Amino acid sequence: MKLIIKKKSKFALIGHGYHLDCIFKELIKNQFPKPIIITHPKKLHLRDIKYNENDQNLYKKVFELEKFTKIFYVKDINSRKINTILKKNKIDYIFSLSSRFIFKKKIINIYKNKIFNIHPTLLPEERGGGIFTYRILNKKKFCAATIHIVDEKIDSGKIVLKSKREKLKGQMLPINYLKQTNLIYRSLIKKFIKKIVNKNVFILNKQNSSKNFYLPRFYTDLQGAINWSWSGDYIHLFIKACSKPYPGAFCYINYKNKPLKMKIYNCHYLKRLKFSHPWFVGKIFYEDSDVFKISVKEGIIIVKKKDIKLNKNIVLKKFVGKTLYNFPSELLKSMTDVTNVFK
Fold it and tell me: Which helix H or strand E contains 79, and what residues bound it?
């Protein structure tokens, strides 16, 4: 299938993030009609900003564009209100960028083959969400992005453009994958706009269903509990996979005979067996001013104190001798067992 987009076309940008900022500026730079922005409620933006506080360039604030164009904060992209907004602003095409919305049949039919999405994988592989987390868990060090047509299924529409960058170097943290993916997003967006300006034809390619697999969205706040009975290598990967810009992997520690939630954002693993009996698993056996060390299966997990956060910003003076638990119920159950004190 072929598609030609005219330069005078007006876009609605739906979503948030660095790449929305990129396409907005590219459209203005190339003298397209000023696009409108439709996005989720501000409280969700504030949550995203919180987790990107150390590197604001990764997360462009949508509200910074309020002085340049119309921005609509909505809860439902499929409402009558949105249809009215799109008609009133004479929108020709929709571009979805990290949108939290799922487009339903009615709006897809109105804008058939005119809704684009940019996805951080090389489709049809890795459809769905939680991409960087799953990629780290599977030790895959590459980044990719695909611009595709939105249809009624998840990430299954015809492919417009795609790109892949192999063999990433450095740390395996989601924030590193995000940085590299943002560079691919920017490159693909520039190529997309350039093809429109040059009146090039887009060739829409059907996805190869035999290569398709789907990954459900990973909710770190709910699914990020560390299982200390795993091997050290798996724990190491899991902690990294839940790191910033996500909320962090978590466990529980005893504080005044109550479970205290601890988030861990990074760690180092040594495959060096310190203790052989499973009783030692999850126990902190060493501490200094900068780090503490945890006994795990097949080795040691080393955590820098700067890479943890305790609930309610409590400062714990002593970590050594304490046990880390997967869930609060396990900790409470152990309270009557004197063997949980490790000296």
Answer: none
